[in-house]
Amino acid sequence: MADKSKQSVEVWTKNDTVNINGRSYGMSDEVSEILALISSLEATQAKAVEETAPLLREKEDDCLTAYFKRWAHKKDAAPLVSGNVVFWSWLGSFLGIAILCYIHYEICLKNTEDLMFIVGSFGAQAVLLFAAPKAALAQPWNAVVGNGVSAFAGIASWHLIGQTTGIMWLCGATAVSVAITFMHWTNSLHPPGGATALIAAMDMGRPHQMSFLYIMFPAVLASIVHVAVALVVNNISSDKLRSYPMTWKPFAGM
């Protein structure tokens, strides 16, 4: 049986006659539509061949060569941003972290025995919220839910592995990898979440004393406050590119 994927169509025209694979047809609207369709299919096939050519060339290389080719430089770094972008990034991050630190030091530490309102991962969150507000990983759902599920993964890993076995390297690795898994499942991928999980698993201070309360203080509640600051500051700027957020919806099609 012939391979249909390799069959070709031979078309030529002469005066008002069209010859397709040896059969002649009179030029009509229907034939014109067929010719347009054939032309479209040929263009699509040519584009597909062009797109798959690098993959085919990669297959021709041995596995090791193909692997290291993926390390190669692919595109230039992004250009420097304007002074306006730098200013608003600085202002937003300063105000956001200042508010979280104030709540942490002046309210939580002075009035409670174990609550906290900031950990190191909020520094990374500030970078996303104020320096890259249009990034998918910086949207409100990602910031709040991503940090929340990561905090749960970290505390759970501490109780199940760190506290029971004392194997801290396994506890830390499990915390981060499970946090990433939870973020994928909830479509809330947020890089600071990995740090939130690791802090929960490895920090021997307040996170362990708080246990699962760490999910709310600081992971969820502080993230909500941080996002609120981002909503105010990013939208004060006259730069429309700083409009925040890009979406409130956690899943496509909602």
Structure description:
This protein is mainly α and 254 residues long. 63% of the residues lie in helices and 5% in strands. It contains nine helices and three strands, in the order E-E-E-H-H-H-H-H-H-H-H-H. The chain has helices at 29-60, 63-69, 83-111, 121-131, 140-165, 168-185, 192-202, 206-210, 216-236; strands at 11-14, 17-20, 23-26. Strand 2 (17-20) and strand 3 form a beta hairpin. Helix 3 packs antiparallel against helix 4 (121-131), helix 4 (121-131) runs antiparallel to helix 7 (192-202) and helix 5 (140-165) runs parallel beside helix 7 (192-202). The longest helix has 32 residues, at 29-60.
Describe the SSE topology.
Blueprint: E1 11-14, E2 17-20, E3 23-26, H1 29-60, H2 63-69, H3 83-111, H4 121-131, H5 140-165, H6 168-185, H7 192-202, H8 206-210, H9 216-236
Antiparallel strand pairs: 1-2, 2-3
Estimated radius of gyration? 28 Å
User: Span from first to last CA?
Assistant: 47 Å
* Helix content class: 55-70%
Low-confidence parts lasting 5 or more residues at pLDDT below 50?
A: 1-6
Net shape: elongated
Biggest sheet descriptor: 3 strands, antiparallel
Essential attributes:
3-stranded antiparallel beta sheet; elongated; 9 helices; mainly alpha; 254 residues; 3 strands
